[in-house]
Amino acid sequence: MDNKLESVLDIMNENQLQMIIISDGYNMHSLSGYKGHTGCILYFKDKQYILTDSRYTEQATIEAPQLMCIDIGSDGYSKTIAGLMKPYVEQMNASHNQETSAFLIGFENEHISYNQFMSFHDTFREAFGDCIQFHELKNQINKLRVIKSEDELVRLSKAEQIGDLAFSHILQFIKPGKTEMEVALELEYFMKSHGASGLSFDTIVASGPNSSLPHAVPTERILKDGDFVTMDFGCVYKGYCSDMTRTIYIGKEPSKKQQEIYEIVLQAQLAALAEIKPGMKCSDVDAVARNFIKNAGYGSYFGHGLGHGVGLYIHEEPRFSPKCEELLTPGVVITVEPGIYLPGEFGVRIEDMIQITEDGYRNLTSSPKKLICVS
Ligand code: GLY
Ligand code: MN
After folding, report:
1. CA pair distance 307, 316, nearest whole angstrom
2. Counting atoms of ligand 1 from 1, which one is nearest the CA of 232?
3. Taking a C-beta distance cutoff of 8 angstroms, is the pair 259, 267 a contact?
4. Model pLDDT for residues 311-370, shown as the tens digit of each residue
5. Same domain as 139, residue 194
6. Which of 122, 142, 210, 328 has its CA 20 to 30 A from that of 309?
7. Which of 242, 313, 337 to mutate to test the pocket of ligand 1 (most atoms within 8 A of CB)?
8. Beta bridge partners of 150
9. Residue 217 Cα to ligand 1 middle (Å)
């Protein structure tokens, strides 16, 4: 049996589930190989199905040959699933005679819409009555993606290398007079023409006062002397995402305040990196950078988490956040991205993507972090 199927069956057994519905596109991809993002995988203990519509049935059959592919046709998902559940519910009822027992269904509560859930709930209850119960899987399935295989690590590393190349290219391209949108487009064109199939997320290029918005959208603003420019970008290589951020200066001499803030962010990142190793609690890593920035007097200007796992999707488990109790393990890929954002003035963020190893970490990002001035 393949390891992934075994892991899902373990989750079924641990939670006494009779069925699991997986509908998150990235989880479907990771568990089965099917990349269509439309449909769901249905797990029973002895049999597994992939349900989709006619646009994707051929693709699903090719990419996930181990699953029986079902075209939902005009019945839709709820009715098709109810048809497949029927023998299992009947078998459970027959074996329990008059005793009441539950047919417990695991579903991805963090992914599924309220409407979709209610459709499952109402259709299954109408067909089989009150024995139908639901179990929120929370993060249980997402967590199966936390530790990357060798093949996944190669793809993630290659994706980040394309990002590094794009950064060194953009240093030649960027100059006063260019707009944020032109810089973003150039980064995207470069990454796509160097092996990327797409972007991990909408590219951020934020200059001058716009850089105090952590997730700014590129505008027509023209870069000029005195600006900080934060570029946060990533690409998808063979299905896997990259993510990096660099802040550079336009002009010859940043102000004292710009130099001070840049240095605090950089030192906060280096301090966190210095602590990272397997066994370290994610919230403790976050605290290293957060306390550094707080002690420098800018604690209230660093609002987001220090980092996030990266894989098929740009934001995965675990998180470097004050709440994440997970321990780092070899094979985790995660970002380290402290920032300080001064509203109306400017912002700085520096982000690397790292892989946890047996004795520490490997930095997948190799772009320089010393403040670069371009004029
Ligand atoms: N680099 C974009 C993000 O982490 O949200
Ligand atoms: Mn990030």
Report:
1. 10
2. 1
3. no
4. 999 999 999 999 999 999 999 999 999 999 999 999 999 999 999 999 999 999 999 999
5. no
6. 210
7. 337
8. none
9. 12
